[in-house]
């Protein structure tokens, strides 16, 4: 009985030692894992911050208007300096209270209501992921201008939004119209020139015929 008691009392410290060792090892493992997770989290945050900085730099310096709209009313939640300048808005605070419909005329050139057509474009972009089309916008002072629009579906903080990029085509349309008018002028000039050439050829024929008649008259005389 005494021997058994000694053995049992000897095992108790040993068991406690192993239990404490396992507990310390588990604590060290958890601490190490937490450090690795924190390191991975810090790296992810750094990569995200770099990505955000890169996107923000592109967003601010992009030469075309770049905006983000969010449902359900699809109003602007952000806009770059090019957008404010393009639409003639005083500041971002004023701009964020607007929607694309506030910067569009009542009707598009095809006769469609801008409100209905805008809704269709948004639904199509959400379904397809992106959509490129031509649109007539208007500046804050009411001046209309032709534009090319790209809608791209995106997700931020779990919310579905649309990135909107607008390019003012006023200058391109002006050059296109000038080229069209110039081409028409060239066509008119060509037709007039061809008419003159045909008339000159006819006159030469008439002159040759008169010369031949004079020659015959001289011979007959």
SSE layout and pairings?
Blueprint: H1 2-61, E1 65-70, E2 75-79, H2 81-87, H3 92-95, H4 114-128, E3 130-138, E4 144-156, E5 159-168, H5 170-220
What can you tell me about this protein's structure?
- This protein has 221 residues and is an alpha+beta fold.
- The protein is built from five helices and five strands.
- It has helices at 2-61, 81-87, 92-95, 114-128, 170-220; strands at 65-70, 75-79, 130-138, 144-156, 159-168.
- A five-stranded antiparallel beta sheet has the order 2-1-5-4-3.
- β1 (65-70) and β2 form a beta hairpin.
- The longest helix is centred in the N-terminal third of the chain and has 60 residues, at 2-61.
- The radius of gyration is 40 Å and the shape is elongated.
- The N and C termini lie far apart (173 Å).
- The mean pLDDT is 79.
Tell me the radius of gyration: 40 Å
From the spread of the alpha carbons, the general shape counts as: elongated
Mean pLDDT: 79
SSE topology string: HEEHHHEEEH
Low-confidence stretches: none
What's the helix count?
5
* Number of E strands: 5
Helix content bin: 55-70%
Main sheet record: 5 strands, antiparallel
Estimated share of beta-strand residues: 15-25%
Span of the ends, CA to CA = 173 Å
Strand order of the largest sheet: 2-1-5-4-3
Secondary structure category: alpha+beta
């Amino acid at each position: 009985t005494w021997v058994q008691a000694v053995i049992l009392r000897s095992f108790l410290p040993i068991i406690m030692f192993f239990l404490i060792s396992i507990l310390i090892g588990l604590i060290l493992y958890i601490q190490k894992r937490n450090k690795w997770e924190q390191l991975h989290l810090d790296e992810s945050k750094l990569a995200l911050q770099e990505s955000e900085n890169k996107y923000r730099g592109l967003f601010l310096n992009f030469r075309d208007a770049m905006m983000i709209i969010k449902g359900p009313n699809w109003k602007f939640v952000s806009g770059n300096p090019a957008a404010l300048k393009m639409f003639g808005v005083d500041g971002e605070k004023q701009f964020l209270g607007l929607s694309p419909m506030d910067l569009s005329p009542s009707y598009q050139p095809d006769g469609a209501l801008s409100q209905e057509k805008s809704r269709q474009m948004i639904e199509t972009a959400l379904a397809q992921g992106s959509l490129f089309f031509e649109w007539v916008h208007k500046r804050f002072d009411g001046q209309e201008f032709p534009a090319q629009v790209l809608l791209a579906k995106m997700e931020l903080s779990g919310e579905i939004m649309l990135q909107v990029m607008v390019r003012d085509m006023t200058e391109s349309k002006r050059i296109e119209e000038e080229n069209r008018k110039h081409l028409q002028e060239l066509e008119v000039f060509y037709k007039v020139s061809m008419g003159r050439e045909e008339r000159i050829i006819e006159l030469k024929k008439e002159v040759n015929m008169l010369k031949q008649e004079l020659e015959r008259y001289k011979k007959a005389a």
